Write the structure tokens for this entry.
Amino acid sequence: ARVPLVLLDRGCGPGVADSVAVDNVAGMALVLDHLAATGRRRPCFIGAAGTASAAAERRAAYEAGAAALDPGAPGRVALGDFSVEWGRAAVDRLWPSRPDAVVCANDLIAAGALQRLRQLGADVPGEVAVTGFDDIPLAGLADPALTTVRQPLAELAAEAARLLARTPAAGPPAARRAVRLAPELVVRASSAGPGTRAGEAS
């Protein structure tokens, strides 16, 4: 109670402390709007189980938004953890339903999904698009390069530091602030429109 506290990229419930994070709902909306614009109508989602705020917000935003593309989309969800290994394993679960887009809750999952799809002979992005979230360096090195949601890392850190500097050690819960910063969609070759080959999208 005597130490100023700001939560970064995680929430612990209302009134606990000030928090700063990317707007996960807006980020998932950017992904789904992009997929819709490129003609994708059968998305699936690979995410992380549990109640961590990033995992829960991205999953809920996908389920809410994907239903507009396909009423069956919220049912095509596989939950594990934020790892490359889980991305590979989840593809084996979801690929029999033949989605035309694999929406991943982070870039590590997407890298594993992309690798497994290529092993199965799927044409990415001609047959199926793959998207990630975070824009870690690996995203630009994948083959094809990964479309993803970029977090404003410098701004997140600066805002957290600003809040920390002005946060009293103890204050009423009503004074707690939840800051959500806007993400950016980075479109790369993994989500080109159907009928194109990997590498044709910039």
Notes: The two ends are 50 Å apart (CA to CA). Residues 196-202 have pLDDT under 50 and may be disordered.
